[in-house]
Sequence to fold (472 residues):
Amino acid sequence: MKKQIKINKFNNFDDENEIKTKNCYNFLPSKKLNQSFSVKTAAFPNSADNSNCYEIDISSTEIGSIKGLASFKQYFPTEHQSVYRLMIYGQDKTEYFNQLLFNDTSIQPAYYMTFTSSPIALTFKKDDLDAIILADKEKMMVWKTYKGPYEVKDAPVITSMCMNDGVLFCTLQEPAFKIWYATDSDLENVGSVSGNSGYLSLEDDLGDAKKIITFNEDVYIFREYGISKINYLQKNITVSQVYASNSQILANTVSVCGNLIVFMAFDGIYTFNGTKVEKTNIDIQKMLDGINMSATASSLSHFYFLALRLKYEDEIKTNLDSNYVNNTILVIDTNDLSYQLMRGYDVLQFHALKTNIFEKMLFCSNSIETDKIKEIVLNTNENDNNMPKLWESEDLTNDNTVKQFVSLSCYSPKNVNFILTTNNGKSFSFTTTNDGLNKFNFKIICNKINLTISTKQTPVNIEDVCLEYYDY
Fold:
């Protein structure tokens, strides 16, 4: 009697009663295999109805390549108008901006501010006006509505910063065991001790302070080996230990994502809800290529985006050459901790851009199209890179008995490759020729078999995969 193996689930990584997924990237795995998150050159709408979009052109400047992104909303009370500026740091060490929602493709220097490296940025209110801080290893600049930017003299070298209840908190390059703070009205004194500014020392064994963030109206310090919490009440400031880690935390991967903070350590991906740290079941440890000190992350809505470097055992090539730093974007849906791998993207820096009419996850690249701002989009027919997509199963059989496999059927577009590989190392390859039902007939005798599906087709939708066999 003919029997069937039906694949009704492509996103199964841990249920032993279902067919297990061994490897999957650039697909959105669910009950179907379809278009995953993909990447295109960022296009910005010029009106609320999104009727027209424009791409930013940097060719008329000396910027070279794009090395950093930030954004800044300025509300002008007299004019009753909000202006959104996308900040762009260039290879020429100059800060530029594009005024969003004005259908202007050009960029212009932001008061000719220059930095030695891509500055970190923080937006906040100062004197009831919108303001942004830009800081690198040499200077700290403050730009406030109605004012040109000014430099905060003798500021320390800030590595991260956040604002909470009108107080600026900073981690420093040196000494990395001190947290400096200053009220928003006394920013010029950050790095010195006054009535409205000062520092606290971290006198424990969690290591250097690497990242400071605001979460649920509290301030948390991510250390090399743990998390501390700042308690600030009526100018009385203390610090308490929240979590101690056995594995080093990668500071640039720490990001607030909805009601969680997500971060990567050397031994895996973790979530933190303000009270409890939990390690996720996202198993990428065997794929890690090196210690991933260049990993970086950001979040938008309930999606966490992590750029990192992974090893792939297949021979499929992407458009990255040997000079890439990162090669994968890991996307985690924090609603259910499902995840996807986007292979072939070398992210230098993410930026979550939010305006009153649209939100986008932007990034600039280390090595590919460094003169373009890219955006990550979901379930789109646009994929300007035609990245290879792959899904690979574990063994499809539930026992070790010999079987004779006779057919494979599926609903799929053209140009999708199916490869059946047996336990004795033989492979059988088939390529779809129809948009819709495809069926392949053959005779394969073995006791174990796995399936690989791959394509560069866009858009793609694969479902109802069925393998038929007889007991032999």
Notes: The chain has a mean pLDDT of 91.
